[in-house]
Amino acid sequence: MKWPAAVMLPPEPDAVLDRFASLAASTLRSPMAVLSLLSSDREIVLPGASGMPAPWQQERVMAWAHSLCRHAAASAELVVVDDVRTDPHAQDYREAVGHFGVGAWIAAPLRFSSDFTRLFTTDEADTPGGRTSPRPPPGASPGPGTASSGRSGAGPTDAGTTAEADTVATDDVSVGREREQDRLLQTLDNLWSDTEPGYGTPEEDQHPDGGGEPVVWGVLCVMDTVARRWSERDRELLQDLAAAAAAELRSRVLTSRAVAAERQMATALAASTAVHTRSQLLLSLSRGLSQAETVVDVSDILTALLRGQLGVDHFGLLIHEVEQRQARYVDMSTFPPGTDPAWAQFDLRTATAPAARAVADGVSFFCDDRDAVLATDPQLAAQGVWDFPGAVVIVPLLAGARHRGQRTLGALVLVWPTPRDTSDPADQALWTALADYTAQTLARVVNATQRRAGAEQLQRSMLTALPEPDHLEIRARYVPAARGEEVGGDWYDAVLSPDGATTLVIGDVTGHDMAAAAQMGQLRSVLRTLVDAFDESPAALLDRLEPANQRLGVHALATAVVARIEQDPDQDVAAGGRGWRRLRWSNAGHPCPVLLHRDGRTEALQTDNDLLLGLNTGHPRHDHVHDLPPGSLLLLYTDGLVEHRGRSLDDGLAELRRVLSQHADVPVTDLLDVLQRELIGPDPEDDCAVLAIRMHPEDRPRPTEAGPQHTDIPPLQPTADPPAFPAAGLVPEPSAPGLEPHGDETRPAGTVGLLDARSTELVLDPDPAAVARARSFVHDFCCRLPACGDICDTLQLLVSEVVTNAFLHGRSQARLQVTATATSLRLEVSDDNSALPALSAADPDALGGRGMALIEALTSAWGVREDPVGKTVWLELTSEAEEV
């Protein structure tokens, strides 16, 4: 039998059970009493004792063979011995008689129901016969005396004729003593009336809860040093005291079990809470990461979530750059200020830090504190660069299922402010799940970015460079949707017609996918061909496009505006000057053009639109005409500019007219920036194409911003007192009457330094010829400067690098601006991508990655300026830089 811990007490005094023993001894007027508990290892523990000789009164344990209690335990009933000398079983406990000097004794078992015992014991088969109560050793007698009969242990001889009868204590109890016992019995009766059924009086315990034999866990025994007769009152009182002691032990068992159950419940609740917390964290992470569109989005979501719910002090997202064979942190701002910038990236071929090894080898690190971190890499300890005292967890981001040799995308680095145990399997499973969620998101983001880049490149390749007709300034802007791969079917075009007119097109093929972009390209090509082949009105061109759309298998549904800007000499004369033009257009279900006048007035050129392209209804299309005064600006656009979620097309048109009126006098390129910033925003829901045409007056010289390649730069004149060029005493002449050779070109004669010149700019469309145009633009600009020397060649090299980067990372047009001063040339290239370039060590085996290093080596200064939309990379060249 394995006894419950609350019942099998240790061999030491128990104050409550000592009180039971003392009460039993005093009530039965005996010198000794003991409350014993039975042990499965054949020892008897004495937690309650009164008047026992040493050493049992102190040590509280005795062997089974020395105990009188074993006999009461074996019989499970009351044992009464009035005189040990006449007890036929005295031989079985002679050692106890000798040790304690016992002349008479009485013992009542501490009985429990078998049903109660089965609730709290764990092994019923470890006792002979599978009984639930201890059995005496082999050879032990059932027990001396009699049980419920109450007969004394005098043996078969009649008590009145035996020689020892006169030694038995037979004096009657005094009246005062009887009253005291009566009061105790009444108290115990009241106690039993409050106990559970089946656990009260001995009679009830015989068949608790309707059946089951009683189980004995202990014995309450009273001993006297002389022979005496134990009265019926003595017997009744001892049994009640034994039942009270059993109730005390039973209460302890129940209390202990209740405490254990409460502790288990608290443990289970804590475990359940922890599981719920982890589940909620993963759910929050899943929801957050599902919205991520860029790697920076992933880093921001993780930073907010991990700091708020995991208590992480610092967090790092490492990205594996495979081609460069390095890993870099997406955002170092998540680490404390002053962190060594060298930690921003690792060369995976040489780095030994645990974060680098996690990326390179796909292994995890769980470090409880700073010492554990330093133990992972001896160089960290030698360099003394790791100052964080807390725990660190580093988990690789695997591209596929774990433990299958998948490619590593990066690693998660979690740093806590204080040490903590990182060995809990549940915590490690949580961190691994966080890494898996992050890896899946990164894979999705990278894949979507690559597909988006391919789609955008396809669409941009279809948007050829715009023509530059005399005194007409044409600018365009294409902005793809910020979400997903919605490149869409928006397009713009401008073609010089054979008769000299300029034909403009703005259109939108239905759909937001690669198929829409492909249909757009086909429809645009067909329309360009029709414009070049037929000198006809816009309505006639659309009438020809409709059947061609079906015959050629394009089958595109699209809205479009086709417009012609025509020059009319009669209109010039009637208006009293040159520069008036006439707009002729046809609208196939598209948003109306808007005309911006010099004074800020706007006109929405609204008409009854014809049906969109692709319906093939056979209905004729119509032309509309409107005069274009000098200095006015015509704006063609797709619905992505004016129609947003929560804003109707009419409200968007009103907002567009308001913005145009407020910025009527700004350059066209700046105006497009304003429209993109205020109407489209940084997170466009739909792609958008905008075509802006400014009608410059023809009675004035062609402005710089209009004309072939924008190279019609006014002659540069020196300042009255130009500052000296830092070369040895070289001062430019005050005038430049002639031209001298400058390479294959010419430059002003007689001057040797750079002059204070106005800056000039060029807008570049995203096509392969843009880089060559940028070089030519810079070369032509330099050729008009006096004695710029080799700076011109260097500037052409650098503009190629900067413009190439702008188109690799930007999403629309780029703006190039060149400015000359007396001592330097300044180049600025702006694009719509807000990601900032960084200078990094180039891989000697890589095909690229040297652009920023080249800029660093050849310029006297360079930097990046963050704009409201995108960024501007600037660089400067001076004579010192060139001489170096």
Task: Sum this structure up briefly.
The protein has 884 residues and is α+β, with helices and mostly antiparallel strands. The chain contains 22 helices and 29 strands.
Please explain how this structure is put together:
By secondary structure, the protein is α+β, with helices and mostly antiparallel strands. It has 22 helices and 29 strands. Strand 18 and strand 19 form a beta hairpin. Residues 1-7, 122-175, 187-211, 709-758 and 880-884 have low confidence and may be disordered.
Count the DSSP helices: 22
| Shape descriptor | elongated
Largest sheet: 6 strands, antiparallel
Strand content: 15-25%
Radius of gyration: 51 Å
Strand arrangement, major sheet: 3-2-1-6-5-4
Query: How far apart, in Å, are the first and last alpha carbons?
Result: 96 Å
Task: State mean pLDDT (0 to 100 scale).
Answer: 75
Helix content: 25-40%
Poorly predicted residue ranges: 1-7, 122-175, 187-211, 709-758, 880-884
Using DSSP, what is the number of strands? 29
SSE-based structural type: alpha+beta
Keywords:
single chain; 884 residues; alpha+beta; six-stranded antiparallel sheet; 22 helices; 29 strands; elongated; disordered N terminus; disordered C terminus
